[in-house]
Amino acid sequence: MSIQNGLLHSVQAIEEHYSAGDYIFREESTPLFYYQIVTGEVKLNSYKEDGKEFIQDILSDNSCFGESMLILGKPYTVNAVALTKCTVLKISRDQFFQLLQDHPDNFLNMYTALSEKTTEKLVLMQKISSQNAEERLVELMNQMKESKENKYRYSFEIPHTRQQLASLTGLSLETTIRVIKRMEKDEILIIKNGKIFY
């Protein structure tokens, strides 16, 4: 769910530009702004004790991020890092709450989107806790494809690298590559020019 860019501009949103690898916010910092991507990709990640990256989400144009922690007023549980060159709009916490109060339809849309996101995360967490690597990858791909109109077999190009798929599912890169090859052999997905279609 996102708020119309024009509406954000009408409350003096600040436009910021980031290069790939730049931190937008860091884990444990206090949420002060509502963020929304205009262009580019942002990943939400954290690191395990052994230094291994776990990607919580990868977001693109018109996606908002960090809003649940902003609403709760609790420190971020993830980092937000630009994956590509990004343009991001931000408004202060006070402006955000005033905007929701002045435009209740946005509040309802955000409430619904947060509920859907929570449900998706619960389902994914159940699958990720499974020892079956294929189940983890299938569930992630199903969730990505769910919002697309075309549900035909092999119609959806997975927008992530194998490393990103590994980080999103808590698998090693080697396991992810091996399982994807097996899924191709079993005709669950196809690979064209190195791209995965599900």
UniProtKB/TrEMBL annotation:
InterPro entries tied to this protein: cNMP-bd_dom (IPR000595), cNMP-bd_dom_sf (IPR018490), Env_Response_Regulators (IPR050397), HTH_CRP (IPR012318), RmlC-like_jellyroll (IPR014710), WH_DNA-bd_sf (IPR036390)
GO cellular component assignments: cytosol
Cyclic nucleotide-binding domain mapped to chain residues: 15-117
Keywords: DNA-binding, Kinase, Transcription, Transcription regulation, Transferase
The keyword Transcription is assigned to this record: yes
Ranges where the HTH crp-type domain occurs: 131-198
Signal peptide: none
Keyword Glycoprotein appears in the UniProt entry: no
Alphabetized GO MF terms: DNA binding; DNA-binding transcription factor activity; kinase activity
PANTHER family for the chain: CRP FAMILY TRANSCRIPTIONAL REGULATORY PROTEIN (PTHR24567), LISTERIOLYSIN REGULATORY PROTEIN (PTHR24567:SF28)
Name this polypeptide is given: cAMP-binding domain of CRP or a regulatory subunit of cAMP-dependent protein kinases
Organism per entry: Chryseobacterium oleae
